[in-house]
Amino acid sequence: MFPHLQLQYQFSLLRKLIEADSNDVPHIPKQRRSSYFGMILFVTGHFMKGCPIGRRKDLKTFILRRTTTKTPAALYNHAMSLVAKGQCAAAMVYLNLAVSRGHLPSHALMAHMLGGGREGVAKDHKRAFELVNVGYQKGCHHCQGVLAMFYMLGHGCKADAVRSLELARMSSDKGSKYGQCVLGMIYLNRGGVPFYRLAAAQNFDEAQYNLGSMLYYGYSCAVDRAEVLRWFQLAAAQGHPEALYMVAACHRYGYGVATDEAEAIRWLRRAQAAGHPYTEDYL
Question: pTM of the predicted model, to two decimals?
Fold first, then answer.
């Protein structure tokens, strides 16, 4: 390839990489895309072999400008759009930048993802608790809700049901999907469905998964196989590990959909990549 055409291709590929459009750059490993600093090292170390030093500097400047000129809110919104498509590792790049600039809702979302794990995002309860506690101390009602979930589950802290309920109520009263979801968990058999529906209406994967589970087991509602699969699929689309596993189970056993073992295995592979603990034995 001629040098000028090679450089043009590199710039085009780099733009796709920075925009986190992983469908357009499948040959670049996800772990490379999941780190902002990794991107710079990857570009200068791989793309720029044999290119003039000046061109390397141009590329590094392009990366810095592309990622640092966005406002924290814009970074967060872009991360949300990536999560909605299941591109969680790419979303973490933008969340890291937003968190570094003090964006509190980004603390909540990042902590939530680290608490449960996602494809390309390993669980880290200690880091998740630190993130959400900082946001809580600064008055973020979303962080209150995530903290309530952590106190309920004992993620990064000692489980405390009383503290969890207190924080969940404060968070839910301010309209946070995280607090609403926790109240749904607390009131599971005592009218928790309305709280789940409030959170699910905000496209919150945990609430969508829990609604699917309630319908699956018939908790406080009639079993509805079509609705079960729909809620699981909505959560799975965002990379939720348990939802991915349950979508696989639905395909394996023909629950709300025709039996399809190949499709079940495909969803199981995604659940495995997201860190679900039982997929290896199931496979």
Answer: 0.74
